[in-house]
Protein 1
Amino acid sequence: MEKTKQYNLLAYKQRNRRDGDDSTAIDRRTMNELSDYFRIRFTLARRCTLACYSALLALFLGLNILRPEGSLTTWAMQTLPLLLVLPGLLDNRHRSYSWLCFVILIYFTAYVVEVMSPLFVWTDALALALSVVIFTAAMLASRWLQHWQYHAAQADGGPVPGPPGTS
C-alpha cells in the first residue's frame, strides 16, 4: 500500500512540475524507491513470461517431436514465430516483450478455435491458458521495464533512455 501511495505522490509531483511549479521537485530517494518498485514487478513478470514461454515450447516439442504422429515441419512452423523474439527477451528489451504480445495473439486465436471445436483435446486448453498468461505477463513486463529504466535514469541524474540507436 505504501508503494502505491508513493507512486501516486510521484504522479502528483510530475503534474505540478509540468504546470510550472518547481517547489515539489522529486528527490533522488523517491526515484530510487520507484526504480526498485518497478524492478521487482518487472522481475516477477519476466519470470512468469519466460516460464510460460518455455512451457509452450515444451508442449510443442512434446506434441510434434516425441509423439509418433508428430512432424518436424509442424514443430518448426509452430515454434519459429516464438523463437524470433527470444534474443530480445533474453536481453530485456521492452519492444521484444511487446512483439511477443503480438505474436502470441496468433496462438490465442488458433487455440480458441481448437478449444471450441468438437475435436477438443486437453493440450489445446493448456496451450490456450499458456498463451493468455504469456500475453498478460509480457504486456506487464514491457510496461514495467520501461518505467524501471525511466526511473533508474532519473535517480542517477542521467538522461531518460530513449530507443536504441538514439543519442
Protein 2
Amino acid sequence: MARSRLPVLLIGGLAAATLVWLARSRNREGWLRQPPGDRPTTLVFELGGHVGQPEIRRMAERVLAAFERFDTVDMLILLPGFTGFTPAAALDLEGLRAGLMSWGKVRRYAVVAPPVWAGALINLADGIIPVEARTFPIEALDEARAWVSEGRATAA
C-alpha cells in the first residue's frame, strides 16, 4: 500500500514545487506588448517580467479573436525579459483554451529568447504537437520573423 502511494506523493510534491517556483517573483511585474506583425495573420507578443493572469488573459483574448477571423495564424513570441508565470496565469482558463485551440489554428510558432526551461519544452513539443515550433536566440530575431511567415501568402 505504501509503495502504491509513492508515485502519487512524488507527483504531488513536484506539482507543489512547480507552483512555488512559478509563484516566486524574480524580477519586476509582468507585462505584455503586441508589436505589429508583418501581415494580419502573424500575431506578435512580447512578454516580460513575472507574467500574471491579466497579461495572459489579454493575450488569450487577442489570440482567440484572431482564431475567429482567420483559418490559421502564425505566432512570434518575444521573451527577452521573461522570468516566469504566476500560478493564476499558468492556470487561467482563457489562456488554457487559447493554448488548446492553437493546435488546430497555429501554423508556425517562433519563440525568441526563451528561458532555458521554456526553450527545452518548446523544442520537445515541436515533435509532438501539430504546430511547427522553433526557438531562436535574440540575435536571430530577423531570422525568426522570416521563418514564422515563410510560405504564407502576403495578402490575408
